[in-house]
Design goal:
The protein is mostly helical. It has two domains: 46 residues, no CATH class; 87 residues. 56% of the residues lie in helices and 0% in strands. It has five helices and no strands. Helix 3 packs antiparallel against helix 5. The longest helix is centred in the last third of the chain and has 34 residues. The radius of gyration is 21 Å and the shape is elongated. The two termini are 24 Å apart.
């Protein structure tokens, strides 16, 4: 049994939470935690073994996108805080953040408004990418007759 790509910094074989490298070979999704993205690429070559399955990179990207989306919202919230607008943490308040930026009557300088709109555009693009990847992953799992994909 080969452990290529499944070694930690000390050179010891890295075993997944199920404790079985053979299980990883049968089900690559077990290996796709954010901390093991490089492990998945090295071990599985970036793709699942069976033709027609969703690429491992799509699964890993799908797990990373919400983190990036949250970082974008936190940056927007932090910049608004510099101008006196304080909002609670969380993605659920993004509509309020966007409303303040788009409100021309707010006390935001136009130079800041342009930059904050870039963050809003980035957030919107991330939302669209998450939706598209969800559709791709769902389609891949529906087309798999075994239901394993």
């Amino acid at each position: 049994m080969s452990t290529t790509g499944l070694v930690d910094t000390a050179g010891k074989p890295r075993v997944d939470r199920v404790g079985n490298i053979a299980a990883l070979q049968r089900d690559p999704a077990l290996c796709l935690s954010e901390s093991r993205l490089s492990c998945a690429h090295a071990f599985f070559g970036g793709f699942f073994a069976r033709p027609g399955d969703v690429p491992a990179t799509a699964m890993a990207l799908r797990m990373a996108l919400p983190r990036w989306r949250t970082q974008c919202v936190n940056a927007l919230r932090g910049h608004l805080m510099e101008y006196g607008y304080v909002f609670p943490k969380g993605i659920t308040h993004v509509e309020t953040l966007v409303a303040v930026v788009e409100d021309l009557q707010s006390a935001l300088p136009d130079s800041a408004r342009v930059i904050l709109k870039l963050l809003i555009d980035t957030f919107t693009a991330l939302e669209a990418q998450i939706t598209a990847l969800d559709a791709e992953i769902n389609q891949g799992s529906k087309s798999d007759p075994t239901g394993a994909g």
